[in-house]
Amino acid sequence: MTSKVDLRSDTVTQPTEGMRAAMARAPLGDDVFGDDPSVNALQEKIAAMLGFEAALFVPTGTQSNLCAILAHCQRGDEYIVGQMQHCYRWEGGGAAVLGSVQPQPLNHQADGTLALADIESAVKPDDPHFARSRLLALENTLGGKLLPMAYIEQATDLARRQGLARHLDGARLFNAAVAQAAFLGTEARAEARRIAGCFDSVSVCFSKGLGAPVGSALCGSVEFIARARRIRKMAGGAMRQAGGLAAAASYALDHHIARLADDHALATRLADGLAGLDGLQVEAPQTNILFVDLVGSARDRSEALLRHLASEGIQATGLYRMRFVTHLDVDAAGVDRAIAAIRGFFKD
Ligand SMILES: *Cc1c(COP(=O)(O)O)cnc(C)c1O
Fold first, then answer.
1. What count of other Cβ atoms lies within 10 Å of the Cβ of residue 21?
2. Domain with CATH 3.40.640.10 in the chain
3. Which ligand 1 atom is at minimum distance from the Cα of 141?
4. Stretch(es) of the chain classified as CATH 3.90.1150.10
5. Staple 191 to which of 180, 238, 261, 289, CB 3.0 to 4.6 Å?
6. Each residue's pLDDT tens digit, 284-307
7. Ligand 1 pocket, residue 286 CB under 6 Å
């Protein structure tokens, strides 16, 4: 039996042997009392890595973003955000539903950025007609795309001048940092810190490319994290002996950052392998997410393609626009099987 190649998401990874061992030996306490040593160690590690005073370990990126938006904003405030960003589009409208914080969504430019002029004109004057503009939320990577560093600096400077707080949904911050470091010939951790340094708060997922089973961290000032901790309690509370999960995340920070470059190389290998097929438009990947559009006569064949891939043991998602995500549990042989299966489908 050949194994499955799961390209649906980088969330599907299984903990490695080393990670399982770290989880098994993690010292535990009760994190609601604040005395789980493994949780505390993780929070200190990620805060220090990204240059913040404090961090909060939470079960999901969704809860992390919710805590961040509600810690930055009051009822009747608004956050400026991109249409395609997770904390606007994919989180059940949580900030509005649970926090009475209104989103002000903006369209993205082709490179994923929000135009500075659009941000500026979205900031409302202090007038009772308007919600109070309080926060700019960006996301990096966004759909696998890297926000240019110069852009991040400009957008966050603009926000600061306008009196807005700045939050980064950095679910895949380390993918961004690794890609940026490869491009600049610098070091990934330094790039992660440089990106994070432009923001008042940053949320990072351990359960994506970093390969941990569960968890995200929200980073910020001591005072901000105290507010986020109170909101976390309202938003379902905290975990108790969470140290095993924190140890997995800690292990990922120690061992799984540099190797994200392998995932990026595999996404490029997949893109290259699909080049030149009639009916497929392949967008060159910048990190570990590859989008492939079905065009022309292939436009309506996405379901058939997914069925064909499933019959070959390859899992992916998409409708018109297929998404393939590389990660810790995919190797070059798996990618080559995906290429062969897709090429086979289009030969018929
Ligand atoms: C996955 C993701 C989240 C949410 O993380 P969950 O742990 O699935 O709740 C938030 N933002 C971005 C950009 C993500 O990719």
1. 13
2. 17-255
3. 13
4. 259-347
5. 180
6. 999 999 999 999 988 899 999 999
7. no
